[in-house]
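ok new one. same drill as before - structure tokens go in, u give me an amino acid for every spot. 178 of them this time. try not to just spam alanines like last time pls lmao
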């Protein structure tokens, strides 16, 4: 039986919308987590769950649209497109947040954290803290659209990396009949 690739884009858009919605909900938790440590821990846990959710969606696609069998390349393309569509949807939320809501909150919170480190920690990690402060200054000079494009690039890059092991775990070859 030949693989059916006609549903690739449709399912990638559908599951990419689900994944993007998950990422948006996860992103809402992040700024709150800067002041409430439990929410930051929850954000980290949800972030670690993204590959498992991607695996679940790819497996569902394999079973519903591909008859239970899918090649590595087909699974990789599906996962890549799913993460791409999720990144595009999430970019809308990122732009709205950084343009209209944030007003420098995340950067000022990070600056306060770095400036209020205990002296012994600041001394031990002096080079790293200087690098982080320089990075914060670079981000301060970015517009909301530049920050959004940076986050889109990051999401697509990491999504393309996650798509490889996902495809390896999801692929299933059809048994040859004798």
């Amino acid at each position: 039986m030949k693989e059916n690739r006609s549903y690739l884009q449709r399912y990638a858009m559908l599951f990419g919308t689900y994944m993007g919605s998950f990422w948006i909900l996860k992103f809402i938790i992040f700024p709150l987590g800067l002041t409430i440590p439990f929410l930051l821990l929850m954000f980290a846990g949800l972030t670690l769950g993204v590959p498992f959710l991607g695996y679940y969606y790819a497996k569902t696609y394999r079973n519903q649209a591909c008859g239970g069998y899918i090649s590595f390349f087909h699974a990789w393309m599906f996962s890549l497109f799913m993460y791409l569509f999720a990144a595009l949807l999430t970019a809308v939320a990122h732009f709205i947040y950084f343009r209209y809501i944030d007003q420098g909150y995340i950067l000022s919170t990070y600056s306060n954290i770095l400036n209020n480190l205990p002296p012994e920690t600041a001394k031990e990690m002096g080079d790293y803290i200087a690098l982080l402060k320089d990075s914060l200054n670079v981000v301060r000079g970015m517009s909301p659209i530049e920050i959004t494009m940076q986050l889109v690039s990051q999401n697509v890059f990491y999504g393309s990396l996650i798509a490889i092991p996902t495809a390896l775990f999801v692929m299933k070859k059809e048994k040859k009949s004798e």
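The mean pLDDT is 93. and btw The first helix runs from residue 8 to 33.
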